[in-house]
Write a structure and sequence with these properties.
Distance between the termini: 30 Å
Number of helices: 5
Low-confidence stretches: none
Largest sheet: none
Order of helices and strands: HHHHH
CATH topology of one domain: Four Helix Bundle (Hemerythrin (Met), subunit A)
Bound molecules: fe (ii) ion
Strand content: under 5%
CATH architecture of one domain: Up-down Bundle
Shape: elongated
C-alpha cells in the first residue's frame, strides 16, 4: 500500500510544517520497508529499518506531545494513549524480528500504514485544526504562528 493509494501527502497535511515533515518521513520509511520485504531484502536491513522507524516515531511522538503540552491542548491525554499503542506495536515488531520470530510477507505491514494514516488523519489533524481555531477562541489564526 502506497501513499498514492491513500491520497496525496497534501491531503494529509495537518497544517504544522514540522510535524508534516515527520509524517512524510515515517511513511517513506514504511514504504521502504514494504519494498524491501517485497523484493526479498535481507534480514539485517529490515531490522535496521524497523529500528529506525521505531526510534524516529518515538522522537516524533515526544515532539508532538511537547508541542501539545506547551499549547495546553485539551486532547493531550487521549492523544498520548494513541501514541503509546503505536509505539508498543513498533517495539513488538522490533523484538519479534530480533528473535527471528517475525515472518514478513508483502502486505504484512499494511496495518502499519493504515494505523499511521488513521492517527495522522484523525488525531493529529484534530490538533492542527484546534491550533488553527479563530484568534478570538484563543487560536493562532492570523497571528503568524503557523509553523
Ligand atoms: Fe500524534
Ligand atoms: Fe504525528
Amino acid at each position: 500500500m502506497r501513499l498514492g493509494e491513500l491520497g496525496t501527502h497534501d491531503e494529509m497535511s495537518i497544517g504544522v510544517k514540522m510535524l508534516d515533515c515527520d509524517h512524510r518521513q515515517q511513511f517513506e520509511t514504511i514504504f521502504e520497508l514494504q519494498d524491501l520485504i517485497a523484493s526479498g531484502g535481507g534480514r539485517g536491513r529490515i531490522g535496521s529499518l524497523l529500528r529506525r522507524l521505531e526510534r524516529f516515531t518515538r522522537a516524533h511522538f515526544a515532539l508532538e506531545e511537547e508541542m501539545m503540552e506547551a499549547t495546553n491542548y485539551p486532547g493531550l491525554k487521549g492523544h498520548v494513549f494513541g501514541h503509546r499503542q503505536i509505539a508498543e506495536h513498533l517495539q513488538a515488531l522490533v523484538v519479534f524480528h530480533d528473535r527471528g520470530a517475525l515472518h514478513l510477507v508483502p502486505g504484512s505491514l499494511d496495518f502499519l500504514t493504515v494505523g499511521h494514516m488513521n492517527h495522522v488523519e484523525h488525531d493529529d489533524l484534530s490538533y492542527g485544526l484546534w491550533l488553527d481555531r479563530p484568534t478570538e477562541m484563543g487560536g493562532r489564526r492570523d497571528q503568524g504562528l503557523r509553523t
